[in-house]
Design goal:
Helices cover 86% and strands 0% of the residues.
Length: 76
């Protein structure tokens, strides 16, 4: 929406959208990678809490896989 407000001409508009998408994907991949790493680094003794952590790690892995699939789709 912001890029539309800039009023960039055709190809420039497309280039701005593609760059913004790339930055958003990179930021999300970094976020989920760091979150996963942080979760894996936690020292947890409770089996219940360990199971919850495992679920969150799995969620991070799923999001990373979805983002990578989208990147592959968009570039392929």
């Amino acid at each position: 929406m912001l890029i539309n407000e800039l009023g960039a001409p055709g190809q420039r508009h497309h280039d701005l959208v593609m760059r913004a998408e790339e930055q958003i994907l990179d930021a999300n991949l970094t976020y989920y990678g760091e979150l996963k790493s942080c979760l894996q680094g936690l020292s947890i003794e409770s089996p219940v809490h360990a199971a919850i952590r495992a679920n969150f790690v799995q969620l991070c892995e799923g999001q990373i896989a979805r983002l990578r699939d989208y990147q592959n789709y968009a570039t392929g």
